[in-house]
Amino acid sequence: MMTFKIKEYSILKTIVMISLILFFAPMIVLSQETQINSQAVAKDIKGKRKGEFYVSWGYNTEWYTHTNIHVNQPALNSNYTLEDIVGHDHQLWNTGIFNKAITIPQFSCRAGYFFNDAKDLGIELNYDHCKFIVVDGQTAHMVGTFRGKAVDTNFVFAWPHNQYFLNNGANFILVNLVKRMHIIKDKNEYIKVDALGKVGFGPTFPHVQNTLFDLSNKGHFQVGGFNEGLEAGIKITFFKYIYIEYTNKLDWADYYGLRLSTGTSHQAFGTYEMIGNIGITFPMGPRVKSN
Known about the structure:
Layout: H1 6-36, H2 38-45, E1 49-64, E2 67-73, E3 78-85, E4 87-88, E5 107-114, E6 121-128, E7 132-134, E8 138-146, E9 149-157, E10 163-166, E11 172-185, E12 191-203, E13 207-212, E14 215-216, E15 220-221, E16 225-238, E17 242-259, E18 264-287
Antiparallel strand pairs: 1-5, 1-18, 2-3, 2-18, 3-8, 4-7, 5-6, 6-11, 7-10, 8-9, 10-13, 11-12, 12-16, 13-14, 13-15, 16-17, 17-18
């Protein structure tokens, strides 16, 4: 588990964005070459299934930007913001996978379908179970109105008086458009290496658990906002049907209406993820006919 100051994260984000640009640039060039060689592609896929279905499961780790948590509690005459709050993930897979339920660690699952003749464009349902935990003992800046009084002060955000978790999941759900580019493929397809690019949008479904100034809510799941993501990586397929996939992902999530003991909270943060999955893939759909 690691945390970053804003400056450090900005450097990291810049590096990742440059990497993504360098990754997608050759895709554009290669896609033009693919159009030029469309006749050869059509000949290669003649008689094969038009589509390809896949499903995978794996685990992830995250780094988060700092976030402002806005709290609105009309019943308590409170409306304030906790500024520049630091959060971290909680991997749990690093202490073992098979000694606990497989859904307890931070996991990722994907299911998708490549729908065109060349099988290089797809649609994907993408879910990441990521945990967001406010760092205990940090100094928080509080500004606004607290129980009827104006406040602009620092205090130590610490258990047992304060805690703030999306610990059973910040839970990013995306519907992705997927672009695949073949890098290496032997004649019998015993091994195949593909580059992947994904972009998507969808809801968040967080598990909200918190204590604010000794008032605790009842931990619960809820639809709590929206997120958008950009993902890129490598997929290696063995013997046509089994594959491993490693990707890097940038996500921006906006959470609102998160229920507290009374009232609601709102926050937004960016996430950098590293994800490793293993999956199966197989042809599906009608056979491609000759022209």
